Amino acid sequence: LLHLTVFLFGFTGILGRLISLPGDMLVWYRTCLAILTILAIILFRKISLKMPIKTMLKLIGIGIIVGAHWVTFFYAIKISNVSIALSCLSITTLFVSLIEPFFFHTKISRIDVIGGICILIGMLLITHVQLNYWQGIITGLISAMLAGIFTILNRRVANQHNGFVISGYEMVGANMAVGLFILLANPEHFFLSVSTPDWLYLIILSTLCTAFAYWAIVFVLKHLSAYSVVMSINLEPIYGTVMAAFIFNEYNELHPGFYIGSILILISVFVYSRYKIKSQTAHN
User: What is the full DSSP assignment across 121-187?
Assistant: First the structure.
């Protein structure tokens, strides 16, 4: 389930490139449609939305962070390219390896930090350190930091409520935050027309890559640490870059560094997974 979700996350970069809307409006429509999708599922399955006000506000707050992450991610795509934006998310692994222990009162894991550094090196090889895209790289790194924060926070609430309910309130928070940002910064964007192809891409983005994918992540976080999740999500740039090469003819991104970096990432994810399985078996 986690790796299916990673593939869908990789596809968001493709959809972000295909959709002609500005990044903020793209996220606003994405969250609107995702809320409708999740609400339909909740009503169909007769899931209760009741929860303490404090918890609800906490989830909406996490949603605001999700919204900020998406806006910066899609903006990074617009001002650079798909592979740069996806590759910048690699820093999430290192960030989570250092921050998650403080949230859960555990020691910083040496293997987690080493794994994060290996992933970072792999991503640097993939991007070829294209400093001419420095604005996209900085925006992508901000997006990565936000991704790490909301993944850690989601792990803390994952076991408290139904995954669709958690995702629903978070989508509301994301929608409110992005809507307010557009209202204050770019109110004219609300009057932009949406083409038929864009509606099709938005529906795919909001249902499969958002409503389903974020429910799946909440579900996975009930069983895995935030670091384990973001470690596997590092395969997202590989999926996204390969898809972009075929769809947008970005074959120049498939340079030798891409293959070396991809192999390093795959080895890191595999070795880390085997290490966790062995350590959990020994613990049991």
Answer: HHHHHHHTT-GGGHHHHHHHHHHHHHHHHHHHHHHHHTTTS-HHHHHHHHHHHHHHHHHHHHHHH-G
